[in-house]
Structure formats: C-alpha cells, structure tokens
Amino acid sequence: MKDDSTVNARIAQQVRLLRSERGLSLDVLSTQCGVSRSMLSLIERGETSPTAVVLDKLAAGLGVPLASLFDDPARKAEPVSRHADQVTWQDPHSGYLRRNVSPEGFQSPTRIVDVTFPPRTRVTYEAGPRTPAVLQQIWILEGRMQITYGSESWLLETGDCLVIPLDAPNSFHNPGDVPARYAVVLTTLSRS
Questions:
Q1: What is the C-alpha separation between 133 and 149, in angstroms, rounded?
Q2: Of the four listed, 34, 79, 112, 187, which is most buried by Cβ atoms within 10 Å?
C-alpha cells in the first residue's frame, strides 16, 4: 500500500493534467463539479486528502471515472496490473479502503475496484447525469451492503451483484458488525 502522501501526490498530478488537457480554469472546474476553488487548489497541490464524495464530484466534472484520478500519468500503460503495484487509498471520512485493480492508464472502458467497507459506515454520493455515462456493477464478495440508488434500496448479501448507472444520488451502507468487501466494475459507455 502506498502512503497517503504518495497517493495524494498522484491525485494532484492527475487532476492538474486532466484540467489542463480540457483547458479548464480552477473557477470553471469548480462550477462544473460543485467543489470550491480553494479545495481544488489544495487538491492540486497535494495538500489535502479529499474524501470519496469530493473525488466523485471532481471525476464527474472532469468526465472521467473516479478510479482514473489515482493513475500515475508518467507510468507506461501495461496490460497487467500486479497486486503489489495496485494503488490503495483510504477515504479520510469513512475509512473505507479502495484498491484499483485494473491496469493504470490502459485504454479500456472498464475499471475494476476492490473495496473494503467498515461496519456501520455510510457514504452518500450526490451523483447526477454524467458525460460520458458510467454504469457500475457491485459484486459483494464478503459481508453485506445496503445500496440505495435514487428512491430504490437493496440489501445485498455475499455473492449478490447489482448494476446501476451513475446518474442519480446513491449510498453505500454496511449495516453489519464486520467489514464488507465488494468489487465495483465501472464501465464508461460510448458517447453515441
């Protein structure tokens, strides 16, 4: 597992690069993603560990999957992602741990993330329509999770899999007394 400062530096570098590639000022990106200009500036300087909710808003504003914010832009894309090289990040608010399983920078519409979610914890995302659209499948590997999408809610047990688009508010809650582990498979749909 890379330390927090290394992961924050990656996020900072990737956000600066993506913002620059899109020709966006901090003010414009702030408006697009609903994150304050001062927070964006702290993120780009690697001076804060943003929460999953902030990173999700930022990814939506940049039009990329959240997982891509952890990529090392200087790293050569390889088709194999070795376990020892996979970036692990812990949400400073909830304590949930996410490991990007998919190869970094490899051009694929699909990303796989392995999540370990603490007991009695909840994370709520304010997702709205994205361009391009993103579909997520949540496969429960251990434990159980309560997933809410819009006004619908499902209690998922080990082995269950749910598919939902990332276009409405959604919430992840571990109602149990033990950590839950699940895989998230994100697919970016074509712009057509």
A1: 16
A2: 112
